[in-house]
Write a structure and sequence with these properties.
Layout (H helix, E strand, L loop, with lengths): L39 E7 L10 E7 L10 E6 L1 H5 L7 H10 L6 E6 L3 E2 L10 E2 L1 H6 L4 H14 L12 E6 L1 H12 L6 E5 L12 H7 L6 E7 L4 E2 L2 E2 H14 L3 E7 L6 H5 L1 H9 L7
Parallel strand pairs: 3-4, 3-7, 7-8, 8-9, 9-12
Antiparallel strand pairs: 1-2, 2-4, 5-6, 10-11
Helix pairs in contact: 2-9, 6-7
Length: about 290
């Protein structure tokens, strides 16, 4: 399906051959395998936020079978968590984590899956509550990183030991969750050192189109960035998603970041990102130093 790849620190674009658009399928590392220990997923509710006061949200915690309760684990946070935590969805993160951790192709890593907040409305079902997603994800500030640092990660740390250093922490999201992941690491590289963005919304929803210029004019930050997008992504009043991601990749190359950009023919969905998730994680977590 993919014809060529340029070096990782160059503009790394995988060019699709002439197949049906969005024709991406899962590889073996996204399928359950016999003999691979299965991690445990538990759900919890967060309705105590002060950073995003008045919101409620569902969260999920994945703990790999290899976690022994002694050594602190790496941690990876996923925005729009419900879309990433399912074992039969477009990403299948728990299955991929099981396989890669078992194969020692990524460290023992806890997954934290966080839905965007909603404001409860008396008398209405939760599906009709007002969403705080765009404010939380598209705003260019350290607010979401503070939410994770002071609320979600301490709650998770009541159950598992987490590495406190940025080298042991990654963050991922799709669409507005993708720019949110980048913003969290950009604002707090001391908190997250690895970013995975699927069809990231680096467009003018809430000013996110400024990032290519900022990257070029700001001293390089100690973060590693993996971008995925497709030529069939959105083009609307907020901007042109493929061009925005191409500009992000060009700026990351110019500023000599450790980055990779995989560009396909997909649309605004998780098909392509899900299909390449195992390779994305191997690339992100390579050479991860041990905990200090």
């Amino acid at each position: 399906m993919l014809r060529r790849s340029l070096p990782l620190l160059a503009l790394s674009v995988l060019v699709p051959v002439a197949l049906a658009a969005d024709d991406y399928t899962f590889g073996p590392d996204s399928q359950p395998k016999d003999g691979v220990p299965k991690g445990k997923v538990t759900q919890f509710r967060w309705d105590k936020s002060t950073v995003f006061a008045g919101t409620e949200r569902d969260c999920w915690l994945y703990v790999p079978a290899q976690y022994d309760g002694k050594a602190p684990a790496c941690v990876m946070v996923f925005q729009d968590g419900q879309g990433y935590v399912g074992e039969k969805g477009q990403h299948r993160v728990p299955v991929v984590f099981d396989n890669l951790i078992h194969a020692k192709q990524m460290p023992v890593t806890v997954g934290v899956f966080v839905n965007p907040g909603k404001f409860p409305t008396p008398g209405k079902p939760e599906k009709d509550w007002r969403s705080n997603r765009s404010f939380e994800y598209d705003t260019l500030s350290d607010q979401y990183a503070r939410f994770l640092e002071t609320e979600i990660l301490p709650e998770v740390a009541k159950t598992v030991k987490l590495r406190p250093d940025a080298a042991g922490r990654a963050i991922c999201g799709i669409s507005s969750g993708g720019i949110c992941a980048f913003t969290a690491a950009w604002e707090r590289p001391d908190l997250f050192s690895k970013v995975l963005s699927h069809v990231g919304s680096f467009t003018n929803i809430r000013g996110g189109d400024v990032y290519p210029g900022l990257i070029r004019k700001t001293e390089r930050k100690p973060i590693r960035v993996f971008l995925q997008d497709g030529s069939g992504d959105l083009d609307n009043l907020h901007g042109h998603w493929p061009l925005a991601n191409l500009q992000m990749a060009a700026s990351l190359r110019f500023a000599e970041y450790d980055y990779k950009f995989v560009y396909g023919d997909g649309g605004h969905n998780g098909k392509h990102g899900g299909a390449i998730l195992p390779d994305s994680l191997r690339w992100l977590w390579r050479d991860t130093p041990p905990a200090k």
